[in-house]
Design brief:
mainly alpha; 2 strands; 340 residues
Length: 340
């Protein structure tokens, strides 16, 4: 039977997967808002605002769950991470807040105020930078460069301004943009908009595929312990094969205009990337010295935390399902006619 720290580690990973698949696509939408061009640029931005509007606040719940589990279940690791990565985490939080505020001010007064373009620029810019910071933080945790003792902020940037964390940041940005493009195809019936986001999905799929190979290559030198766990474990071949299959399935489905299948494959591909990272990172929370077991709170606290997560899940999942059913029924069911 898995230990209490292992169960909570799985809960954190699951929360990050949900955040990537749902909240990550919202950030990707901001990227495509920034890159909207051509005669349909205004329509593209309106579609993005329409798709994000009902759900963007809810999607942050998954990141909040992961953070709460971290500081409640593994306080020494939370202290080490928040100290060593103070700068990127502060910028990450600022990006999340500014992006949300800018979207709220812009989306609810679209084209009705003289300063709307400033809010749009802030929303798009924060959507571009924040995923990079999130990936950079994840890469830093795996790099083996974070020194947890002493827990004094020195301003040292070597743990996160390095090729490996930066490459993970680039992969995160590409993956979020990829998901957004694939999802947005089914948010509209307009054949022109579908074509626009199909092209963006194909290009971003190629970027994700390239970076999925490039990041492990960089890891060999920048995070050698993580690389050995990623490439040399019993599960490695299976996860990589499933990931490649999902990537190929998404790309072929996009070429064949099978958008619902493409959406499922793209989501599976990103989820498998995170699963591979989580399996390679385990049992470390922060390489090379902080494991889930060594940083865990007392068993009584962990049991209470698990019970709280289970009780919360009984309320959270039906609520999210109902939200999606109300606001995303057509997009999720694929009821739109697929015009080509």
């Amino acid at each position: 039977m898995p230990s209490l720290p292992s169960l909570l580690a799985g809960a954190m990973l699951g929360s990050l997967v949900f955040y990537a698949l749902l909240g990550g696509a919202d950030f990707g939408g901001g990227v495509w808002d920034l890159l909207a061009r051509g005669p349909r640029a205004g329509d593209q931005r309106r579609l993005i605002a329409h798709a994000i509007g009902p759900v963007w606040e809810t999607n942050h719940i998954w990141l909040i769950i992961a953070i709460v589990v971290l500081f409640t279940g593994f306080p020494p690791a939370f202290a080490a991470i928040s100290t060593a990565l103070f700068v990127p985490l502060t910028l990450l939080l600022a990006g999340i807040v500014l992006r949300g505020a800018a979207f709220a001010f812009h989306a609810y007064h679209l084209h009705e105020e003289t300063g709307a373009h400033r809010w749009r620029t802030l929303f798009a810019g924060a959507s571009l930078v924040t995923p990079v910071l999130l990936g950079l933080t994840i890469g830093a945790l795996s790099s083996g460069r974070i020194d947890a003792d002493p827990l004094i902020f020195t301003g040292d940037t070597a743990s996160w301004l390095a090729p490996f964390p930066l490459s993970v940041g680039a992969l995160t940005l590409a993956a979020f943009s990829y998901l957004a493009a694939v999802y947005l195809i089914l948010e509209t019936e307009d054949p022109g908009l579908r074509s626009d986001f199909r092209i963006r999905a194909l290009w971003s799929a190629a970027a994700v595929a390239f970076l999925s190979v490039f990041v492990p290559v960089i890891a060999a030198g920048g995070a050698p312990d993580f690389y050995r766990a990623l490439a040399g474990s019993d599960w490695s071949v299976g996860v990589m094969m499933f990931n490649a299959t999902a990537a190929l399935g998404a790309y072929v489905s996009l070429l064949l205009f099978a958008y619902r299948i493409a959406r499922l494959c793209a989501a599976a591909q990103v989820a498998l990337i995170l699963l591979g990272w989580g399996l390679a990172q385990f049992p470390f929370l922060v390489r090379p010295s902080i494991t889930f077991a060594s940083a865990a709170s007392p068993p009584a606290t962990l049991r209470l935390l698990l019970l709280s997560l289970a009780g919360g899940a009984v309320l959270l999942f039906p609520a999210v399902f109902l939200l999606m059913r109300i606001f995303k029924k057509e997009a999720l069911s694929g009821r739109h006619r697929q015009k080509t």
